[in-house]
Amino acid sequence: MLEIIDPLEPDELPWRNLYATPDFISWFDEVLPEMGHNEVYSDLSPYEQTFAVFAEYVAGEYFSDDRRFKKLSCTPDHHVWEFKTEEVRVFGWVPQYDSFICCFGDGKDQIELMQSYGRYIAQTAFVRNNIDLDEPKFLTGRRHSDVISTKD
After folding, report:
1. pTM of the full predicted structure?
2. How far apart are CA 39 and CA 74, in angstroms?
3. Residue (of 2, 17, 8) closest to 103 by Cα position
4. pLDDT one-digit tens code per residue, 51-68
């Protein structure tokens, strides 16, 4: 059911694992490339921004205390994390150390306009609770060092 996201070059080895639900893969392949782009935010398109942060994650780059990857503190009991770029938010969870499962994505401006953080958090927890994974289905740590290592 889960698919591997491998954003690295063929000669690079992964340090961390990145997975996605089929619905996320559809969004990533079909919706994200067509998302509007505000050049005030970045020279990179939303797709390029997301691909870049995924490559940095999988390659094992330093993410500690970084806004690009964070646990959503407003819902500590749901244990939902997000990847953040200038224009995109990706919601998911950490099933085991050095792994992340992408569940939902959307544009930052759209999330703020529709005030949909709570909805995405609840939907992510629902998908996680209903997916066929070994228990425990997620790590409960709050700090980066509780869920990811760094190769450097």
Report:
1. 0.94
2. 30
3. 2
4. 999 999 999 998 766 688
